[in-house]
Specification:
It comes from Bugula neritina (Brown bryozoan). By secondary structure, the protein is an all-beta fold. The chain folds into 4 domains: 53 residues, no CATH class; 87 residues, Immunoglobulin-like, CATH 2.60.40.10; 111 residues; 89 residues, Elongation Factor Tu (Ef-tu), domain 3 (Beta Barrel). Helices cover 0% and strands 45% of the residues. The relative contact order is 0.08.
């Protein structure tokens, strides 16, 4: 047997002329553990040795809880699996003090329906087994439920239709909304509460987004960067009506938070050795954590009119050490990766920059068809000198 001192949460106390009744919530404990009960009042304490025993045979154990989230309006069917989840004195399930109404229980599987909860919260799912206490949750089991409203649920919008193109949408203070689907092009998205991108490929589209009054727009966090493709696309054109102060096709933040955290990747490096025209592999000076399918830019190392030698390519494979990239297409031009000796102990690094163009969190503007023309590149490049004669920078 193991002996320990139990620390319990005081729920309430009742005092009469002859005795005082103290009601406690007992926390999870180890199997076959005998505890001392210690009552402390100010600087005084009294110990009752070996007064409480944790007995694993009296209670059940939770193995899984599914799904792990649901709307604050309730109505989510929760399935709880485990062992010994029945009790002659009755069983009840609660989440942050809110009942989950049981519809079936065969001792190994409980199905219940969540009730409404005020506000968003992630809380433990508690299964009370009569007077025998709560079912145990092993350390490797996540028995939690996230009360959160999702964009795709009609119940988030009062049972009505989901937001449509051209709508003005407001997320009020105190509400956390999970964006779990692509949106149409909204006229205005006003965020006073919190809008969080679900961990999946998703795109938010709007003409104007305003984050005010302590609101938050979050795509990943610093501790847990976003792992999928998260896109925010702003829509508008030269003739779009402007909002006072903010303008058109804008994302404005006033007393709010814009939190964007994509996968951490090296933004650029340089060539470790020269890559010749026709090469399908390039060797980098520093290792990178880029991915197959990412697009990169390889800068020109030619003369001052060699802009045409800047090249964009897609990564087909990456070596295990992160130094060598295999490209889906061969290079059209030579890109230097050398150190020139200038004499006198002086050297000059002449190496093409290699930059990453692909990112999994993207903030971008839309292309409007009325303002998009294709301008063909000059076959021989262009002169990078002055575009106008000296002192002739405009015509009347």
């Amino acid at each position: 047997m193991k002996f320990a001192t139990c620390i319990w949460l005081l729920r309430y106390a009742v005092k009469t002329n002859s005795y005082e009744l103290v009601i406690l919530d007992v926390p999870n404990g180890l199997s076959s553990t005998v505890c001392d009960v210690v009552v402390t009042l100010s600087t005084e304490n009294v110990t009752l040795s070996a007064a409480y025993t944790y007995d694993s045979s009296l209670g059940g154990s939770i193995a899984s809880v599914s799904p792990s989230r649901g709307g604050t309006a309730g109505g989510t069917t929760l399935t709880i699996t485990g062992t010994n989840l029945d009790n002659p004195a009755g069983v009840n399930v609660t989440i942050d003090g809110v009942a989950c109404v049981i519809s079936s229980n065969d001792g190994s599987t409980i199905e219940c329906r969540t009730d409404a909860h005020q506000g968003s919260i992630e809380a433990d799912v508690k299964v009370k087994l009569g007077s025998d206490g709560f079912a145990v949750v092993p350390e490797n089991v996540e028995a939690t439920f996230f009360y959160v409203d999702v964009w795709s649920s009609v119940y988030t919008w009062g049972g009505g239709p989901l937001p449509e193109e051209g709508d003005l949408v407001e997320i009020p203070q105190g509400q956390t909304l999970l964006l779990d689907m692509d949106t149409p092009v909204l006229k205005v998205l006003l965020i006073r509460g919190k809008l969080v991108f679900d961990e999946k490929d998703v795109e938010l589209q709007a003409e104007n987004i305003l984050i005010v009054d302590g609101g938050t727009l979050q795509v990943g966090t610093e501790d847990e960067p976003f792992q999928h493709k998260g896109i925010i696309t702003m829509h508008g054109h030269l003739r779009s009506l402007e909002m006072p102060i903010y303008g058109a096709k804008t994302l404005g933040v006033r007393n709010g938070t814009l939190d964007l955290h994509g996968k951490p990747k090296e933004p650029w490096t340089v060539l470790a050795q020269t890559a010749n025209a026709g090469a399908t592999e390039i060797v980098l000076e520093r290792p990178v954590h880029w991915e197959v399918g990412d697009r990169i830019a390889i800068a020109s190392t030619g003369h001052r009119h060699s802009q045409i030698e800047n090249e964009e390519r897609e990564i087909a494979a990456i070596s295990a050490d992160g130094f060598t990239l295999t490209l889906t297409e061969a290079l059209d031009y030579k890109h230097l990766g050398v150190t020139a000796d200038l004499g006198g102990g002086h050297t000059l690094e002449m190496r093409a920059e290699v930059g990453l163009l692909t990112h999994n969190v993207v903030f971008r503007g839309s292309d409007h068809h009325q303002w998009k023309d294709v301008i063909e590149a000059c076959p021989a490049g262009f002169d990078t000198g002055y575009c106008f004669l000296l002192f002739r920078y405009f015509t009347e």
